[in-house]
């Protein structure tokens, strides 16, 4: 299977403040374990607009890893399709700086969407995709103004 890579250079993630607050609260409430969620919304050529957050259980129950149950992941992709939405991002927290781990990199091949990482250490969000050179490329997070 040839992995799908995102090549859009000007790609951005558009998200509301309250969605970031929801993700932050999920991360804090999950401590000492990593948290995880799927973000649904709409994709255009360069914009990824978050509409809904689906908090998930970290099946690994670990402070250094997360696992999303494959049945849950399948259900969410199916639900997104029924709602005419796209899976925009996979979110998880790290107890360290918000950069993808080697394990994240493996799973980014399987789920070629934007990956948002929140650092419970520095209270900071970053988002990434895997590019065609197998490197992480940071995606700009832009707040939606109401």
Structural class: alpha/beta
Q: How many domains?
A: 1
- What is the CATH fold-level name? Cytidine Deaminase, domain 2
Beta-strand content estimate: 35-45%
Strand sequence of the main sheet, in spatial order? 1-3-2-4-5-6-7
CATH class: Alpha Beta
Instruction: Please state the second-level CATH architecture.
Output: 3-Layer(aba) Sandwich
Question: What is the helix fraction of residues, given as a range?
Answer: 10-25%
Rg, rounded, reads 14 Å
Query: In CATH, what is the homologous superfamily?
Result: Cytidine Deaminase, domain 2
Order of helices and strands: EHEEHEHEEE
Could you give the distance between the termini?
42 Å
Taking pLDDT < 50 over at least 5 consecutive residues as the criterion, the unreliable ranges are 1-7
Shape: globular
Can you summarize the main beta sheet? 7 strands, mixed, barrel
Q: Overall pLDDT, averaged? A: 90
- According to DSSP, the number of beta strands is 7
Secondary structure tally, helices: 3
Question: Quick summary of this structure?
Answer:
This protein is α/β, with parallel strands linked by helices.
Description:
The protein has 146 residues and is of the alpha/beta class. The protein has one domain: Cytidine Deaminase, domain 2 (3-Layer(aba) Sandwich), CATH 3.40.140. 25% of the residues lie in helices and 36% in strands. The chain contains three helices and seven strands; from the N terminus they run E-H-E-E-H-E-H-E-E-E. It has helices at residues 17-30, 70-82, 102-110; strands at 12-15, 36-43, 47-56, 86-94, 114-119, 124-130, 136-143. The protein has a seven-stranded mixed barrel. Helix 3 (102-110) links the parallel strand 4 (86-94) and strand 5 (114-119). Mean pLDDT is 90; it is low at 1-7.
């Amino acid at each position: 299977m040839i992995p799908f890579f995102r090549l859009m250079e000007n790609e951005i993630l558009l998200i509301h403040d309250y969605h970031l607050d929801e993700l932050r609260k999920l991360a804090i409430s999950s401590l000492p374990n990593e948290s995880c969620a799927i973000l649904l919304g709409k994709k255009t050529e360069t914009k990824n607009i978050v509409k809904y957050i689906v908090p998930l259980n970290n099946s690994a129950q670990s402070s250094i890893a997360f696992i999303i149950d494959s049945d849950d992941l399948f259900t969410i992709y199916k639900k997104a399709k029924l709602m005419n939405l796209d899976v925009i991002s996979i979110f998880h927290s790290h107890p360290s700086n918000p950069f993808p781990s080697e394990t994240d990199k493996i799973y980014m091949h399987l789920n070629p969407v934007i990956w948002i990482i929140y650092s419970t250490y520095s209270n900071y969000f970053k988002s990434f995709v895997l590019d065609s050179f197998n490197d992480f490329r940071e995606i700009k997070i832009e707040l939606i103004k109401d």
